[in-house]
Design a protein that fits this description.
The structure holds 2 protein chains of 2 kinds. Chain A is of the alpha/beta class. Chain A contains 17 helices and 8 strands. The radius of gyration of chain A is 21 Å and the shape is globular. The chains are: A alpha/beta, B alpha/beta.
Chain lengths: ~450, ~250
């Protein structure tokens, strides 16, 4: 599907037959991986909460949710996709549109992306390009426009490449987060994208609708935090299950997601009272920080952690694909349009821990967030996860390591790619790290 | 359960009762069974008297008879401190993999680094280059010690190593100098890996490659420190697994 009927600037035409074959094989593989991941999660925690069934269903990219979105589109609703968590969800909802995150978690399509960009480029980006080339991702295909925040070099050029296919609404965050002009710049970006969203959807964003959208998201944040808080004590839910719940918020109907997450939390609270733990309370507690891990193929590292000998449990993460997504609510003083837009601008800029930012003290927000989480969740060890090619996360490692060394928390740098073949090597490292943590816990 | 050889160590009353090894080949489980039988015979210990067996190494999932596993890094740390109480860093270079681990005085791991991606930092590199030089593997070390300098070789990738040798011979480089270059290149790789980890003295060098005088010399020169080398360095992993097994038995009581 060409954008505005123009000739593609970047992507060569893929013969339809080849595209179909590649899509079918990638789709078959993805369905296998999704089913396999869920089966393994069930195996690790035989008493897995019943409320997880809903999230298992929604996690299927080619299932119920795709059908729902398609049906909504037929009624005239618009779908607005986004790559980074800077896209203001509240504005999309207020325009009666459907927000979906369309960053790719498919390993197989990263090889296709290699045809357009070098292998040194971030695999998430290569995978997204490849997925679009063969039309693999239903949510990406259904998007009427994509909000692309130009956070890193890869994202900047990805926007250009994707403009071969879809209308791209770009947003430029300032590199320096806390200068006098940065919030002003970002507020202008928010206002501009608001106008663009209104244009794409044909709907005006009124104060009333925006208020309702903000309140919807505030409720979602409440449920989101409630789930994370339940992971602070003894493990009542395995990390992969919590991560799946977190991730589905990126494409599910957010009101329904909120309800189902509250129901899950109700079930988990009962388990806390019954002391029905998902794994032994002395299991080493791990936090993962770094580049985002997208469903389904990027369950690789969490799976290794929770299926290792000795077993570890993922109690928290600092990933924009999981514990960071809905963490921060929009704070509003006055429900006027100006104030609401101000609140949205602040929330999306100031709360971010993304390494695309620097500030007077570097990415201090991320360091503080990590230190807090490490204490709150009684973390025993941190895995610093970087996909090869990500300069921003890779370069922050030494600072994070120093900060964690100071509070005597072991950190292990794990770098990987969009490939299944390095599982053996990762297993060696993860198991040695968990063994190290176990000895410390015992002692 | 190493990629190339399987090693077995039997501990009795806190000391090594026997050791044995066998080539892993295509049937590492069988090789391990045979090595185990031999070790039992050497120690004159009946099989039923062995109360705990732990496996380690890249093939540890294929070990026979094991009650459990322990990571190679954990095993190396335990073995290092057992053999040399002042050890705080253990470097283990095997046939296809190199590791380094930092530990405390009890042999508990504090940090580790692994490199199985670069073959030029492991034993098969020496084998490949020995073949290219038409020298016996065990002669590479002593040969390299005769050289006063190392030939300039393309140290970026071992894949080019063998063709490098041909070029060097044509340039009239001597075999001792080429051999020394091989060990210097390996030492460079290992040294980068170890510096990523950081060195806490004393440093133990273990693994099959630690038997090679040429490599030992190159690594000592490169790191600029003294290295503690056990008498049977290739058994460090197996020894560490046995020590861990003994600890688990003690803890269970």
């Amino acid at each position: 599907m060409k954008s505005q009927g123009q000739e593609r600037k970047y992507v060569p035409e893929l013969p339809q037959k080849e595209a179909e074959e590649l899509r079918n094989s990638a789709k078959t593989m993805s369905m296998k991986v999704m089913a396999d991941n869920i089966q393994r999660m069930k195996k690790t925690a035989p008493n897995r909460p019943e409320a997880m069934q809903y999230f298992d269903d929604i996690s299927n990219f080619f299932g119920q949710r795709e059908k729902e979105i398609r049906a909504e589109k037929e009624k005239g609703k618009k779908v607005i996709g986004y790559f980074c968590t800077f896209a203001p969800i509240e504005l999309i909802l207020a325009a009666d549109a459907i927000p979906v995150r369309v960053s790719s978690g498919f390993y197989d399509t990263s090889k296709l992306g290699d045809r357009i960009v070098p292998v040194e480029v971030c695999p998430v980006i290569r995978s997204t390009i490849g997925a679009k080339m063969v039309g693999l991702s239903p949510y990406l295909e259904l998007s009427d426009a994509i909000i692309s925040t130009l956070t890193c070099d890869g994202m900047t050029k990805l926007s250009e490449i994707m403009s071969d296919y879809k209308p791209i609404l770009t947003m430029s965050p300032p590199r320096v987060k806390d200068s006098a002009q940065s919030l002003h710049l970002w507020s202008e970006e928010i206002k501009a994208v608001k106008a663009q969203i209104e244009e794409v959807t044909g709907n005006k964003i009124t104060s009333k609708k925006l208020r309702a959208a903000i309140e919807t998201m505030q409720k979602a944040t409440k449920a989101f935090r409630r789930l994370q808080d339940l992971r602070k004590g003894n493990p009542v839910i395995m990390g992969r299950d919590a991560m799946l719940v977190n991730q589905t918020s990126m494409w599910d109907d957010i009101k329904r997601w909120t309800e189902k997450t509250e129901a899950l939390c109700d079930e988990l609270e009962k388990r806390v009272q019954q002391k029905a733990w998902a794994c032994p309370p002395d299991t080493p507690r791990v936090l993962v920080t770094g580049t985002p891990m997208f469903w389904p193929d990027n369950w690789k590292v969490p799976t290794l952690i929770e299926e290792a000998t000795p077993q570890g449990v993922l109690v928290a993460d600092e990933l924009c694909s999981s514990d960071r997504i809905l963490y921060d609510p929009v704070g509003i003083d006055e429900w006027t349009m100006d104030d609401m837009l101000k609140g949205i601008s602040e929330r999306y800029l100031m709360a971010s821990t993304c390494p695309c930012f620097t500030s007077k003290d570097g990415n201090e927000d991320r360091i503080n967030w990590l230190l807090n989480k490490t204490k709150e969740f009684k973390v025993n060890g941190v895995i610093y996860y970087v996909v090869r090619g990500c300069m921003l996360y890779a370069m922050e490692y030494s600072r994070v390591k120093k900060a964690l060394d100071r509070i005597n928390i072991p950190v292990y740098y794990l770098d990987t790619e969009y490939t299944r073949e390095d599982v053996g090597q990762l297993k060696t490292r993860v198991e040695a790290f968990l063994e190290m943590l176990t000895a410390r816990v015992d002692f | 359960m190493g990629i190339q050889t399987v090693k077995v160590v039997i501990l009795k009353d806190g000391t090594v009762a026997s050791r044995s090894k066998a080539f892993s080949g295509f049937e590492p489980t069988k090789a391990a069974e045979q090595a185990f039988e031999e070790a039992l015979k050497n120690a004159k210990i009946p099989k039923k008297d062995v109360v705990q067996i732990l496996a380690t190494g890249s093939g540890m999932e294929m070990a026979p008879y094991a009650n459990g596993t322990v990571s190679m890094m954990g095993a190396d740390a335990k073995a290092g401190v057992f053999l040399f109480p002042s050890a705080r860093t253990v470097i283990d270079i095997g046939a296809e993999e190199a590791r380094a681990v930092k530990c405390d005085e009890r042999g508990f791991m504090m940090d580790f680094v692994v490199n199985e991606r670069c073959a030029a930092g492991a034993g098969t590199f020496i084998e490949a280059m020995a073949r290219a030089l038409e020298v016996k593997l065990e002669d590479m070390g002593p040969l390299s010690l005769k050289a006063e300098r190392a030939s300039p070789i393309n140290a970026s990738c071992v894949i080019f190593g063998e063709s490098d040798v041909v070029t060097l011979i044509h340039r009239q480089e001597s075999k001792p100098e080429i051999a020394r270059a091989v060990f210097d290149a390996m030492a460079d790789r290992v040294s980068s890996m170890v510096h990523r980890l950081g060195i806490n003295l004393e440093v133990v060098l273990a693994g099959g490659v630690a038997k090679d005088v040429g490599f030992i010399e190159s690594l000592k020169r490169n790191l600029g420190i003294n290295l503690l080398i056990p008498e049977y360095p290739e058994y460090a992993g197996a020894l560490g697994a046995a020590l861990t097994a003994a600890n688990r038995v003690k803890a269970a009581k």
